[in-house]
Design goal:
eight-stranded mixed sheet; three-stranded mixed sheet; Rossmann fold; alpha/beta; 2 domains; about 350 residues
C-alpha cells in the first residue's frame, strides 16, 4: 500500500479508506476486497483502529494481510500505532479448552501476568465495572501490581471510573500498545482508542475479535493480577474469553433482587460449562445505610446473592452497600478505595479482595 506524499499532516480516516479501496482483491480469500469490508475505522491522536468483516473460513487466509497492513498503517504520516481486527471466524471452531491448557495457535499467552480474573455479570446495571475498579484498587493496596482490561466494548466505563477519558495509549518499540497508568493501575480499554461519544455498532464476532486483539496486542509487563471487565451476558465476548484467554477464574457480580440473581446464575453456569473456575459471587448495592442515623434499608432485598452462592456451591466474597459516596467518587474518576481509603465502603472492597485471593490459593 503506497502512502501519500509528505508527512507534515497526519493522514485522515477518509484517506485510509481511499487507500484501502485501491487495494487489489485477494484471491487466496475468494477475491476478498479490503475496501468493501470495512466494519469500523477511526484515527484518534495518531492511533488507527480498523476492523474488517470476513466470512466464515476466511480469517486464516487473511491473517498475513492483516498483520502486514497493521505494520504499513503504523508507518503512515502522523500515525504512531495501528490495530487491525478481523471479525471472521473459522468454519468449525474447536470446543472450549480446559483452563490451563494452551492448544497451539489458540490460547493467548500473557508472559509476566499472574492471575487473570474475569469480572462478569448476567445483566447490566449491577455495578460490575465499579466493582472491577475498586477491587483493582483494593488489590493494589495489598502491594500487588494490578491491571484492568476493559472488555466491555459497547459500554467501556473504565476510563471514566479512573478519570482518564482523554488518555491515549502509546506504542512500544515492538508495536504493541502500552497501558495507560491511573491511580497506580495499568489500564487498557476500547474507550482509549475511539472518540468518547462514538457508538460501537458491531456484530458479535467483531466484538469477540476486538477483545482477543486487546489481549494479544498489549504489553502488560509484569502483573500480579489482571482483572477483565466483561460486558454483561453470556454471548460471544464471554465465550471468546473462555476459549482464548488464560483465565484463572471468574467473579460474578449481582444485586440482591430476583431478576439480577436469575441472570447471575446463568452467567455462573456458563463459566462452569466451559470449565472456567467460578471464584465467587459479590452482592453489590446490598443495602442502603443512612449516613445520619445508620439505619439500613434493603432497597433491592438483601442476602440474595449470598443465598444464590450457597445454592450454586460457590464462595460468597462479600457485600457492598449502595451509597452516595461510591457514586460520587465514580463520577469524579477516583474509585472510592482511592478517594476514601479508610471508609466503610473501602473496607468492604478490601474484604472482597482478601476473599478473592484466598480462593485463588492452590
Amino acid at each position: 500500500m503506497s502512502t501519500p506524499e509528505g508527512g507534515a499532516t497526519p493522514i485522515t480516516a477518509d484517506e485510509i479508506r481511499r487507500l484501502l479501496g485501491a487495494l487489489p482483491p485477494l484471491p487466496e480469500a475468494g477475491d476478498w476486497r479490503a475496501g468493501d469490508h470495512i466494519a469500523g475505522l477511526s484515527v484518534t491522536a495518531g492511533k488507527v483502529l480498523l476492523a474488517f468483516e470476513a466470512g466464515a473460513g476466511q480469517a486464516e487466509s487473511l491473517e498475513p494481510f492483516r498483520a502486514a497492513l497493521e505494520t504499513e498503517l503504523a508507518a503512515l504520516p502522523g500515525i504512531s500505532a495501528a490495530q487491525v481486527i478481523l471479525t471472521g471466524e473459522k468454519a468449525a471452531p474447536p470446543p472450549p479448552p480446559r483452563i490451563g491448557q494452551h492448544p497451539t495457535g489458540g490460547k493467548i499467552e500473557l508472559p509476566g501476568v499472574g492471575l487473570v480474573v474475569a469480572i462478569a455479570s448476567g445483566k447490566g446495571g449491577v455495578g460490575k465495572s465499579t466493582t472491577t475498579a475498586n477491587l483493582a484498587m483494593a488489590l493494589a493496596a495489598k502491594g500487588l501490581s494490578v491491571g484492568v482490561l476493559d472488555a466491555d466494548i459497547y459500554g467501556p466505563s473504565i476510563p471514566t471510573l479512573f478519570g482518564c477519558t482523554d488518555a491515549k495509549p502509546l506504542a512500544s518499540a515492538e508495536g504493541k500498545l502500552l497501558p495507560v497508568m491511573a491511580h497506580g493501575i495499568k489500564l487498557i480499554s476500547i474507550g482509549f482508542l475511539l472518540p468518547q461519544d462514538a457508538a460501537v455498532i458491531w456484530r458479535g464476532p467483531m466484538v469477540a475479535g476486538a477483545i482477543e486483539q486487546l489481549f494479544r496486542d498489549v504489553d502488560w509487563g509484569a502483573l500480579d493480577v489482571l482483572l477483565v471487565d466483561l460486558p454483561p451476558g453470556t454471548g460471544d465476548a464471554q465465550l471468546t474469553m473462555c476459549q482464548k484467554a488464560p483465565l484463572s477464574g471468574a467473579v460474578i457480580v449481582s444485586t440482591p433482587q430476583d431478576l439480577a440473581l436469575i441472570d447471575a446464575k446463568r452467567a455462573l453456569m456458563m463459566f462452569r460449562k466451559v470449565e472456567v473456575p467460578v471464584l465467587g459471587v459479590v452482592e453489590n448495592m446490598s443495602y442502603y445505610e443512612c449516613p445520619q442515623c445508620g439505619h439500613r434499608e434493603h432497597i433491592f432485598a438483601h442476602g440474595g446473592a449470598e443465598a444464590a452462592a450457597k445454592e450454586m456451591e460457590t464462595a460468597f466474597l462479600g457485600a457492598v452497600p449502595l451509597t452516595l459516596a461510591i457514586r460520587e467518587s465514580s463520577d469524579a474518576g477516583v474509585p472510592i478505595v482511592a478517594a476514601q481509603p479508610k471508609s466503610p465502603q473501602a473496607a468492604a472492597y478490601a474484604a472482597i479482595a482478601a476473599a478473592l485471593l484466598e480462593q485463588t490459593k492452590a
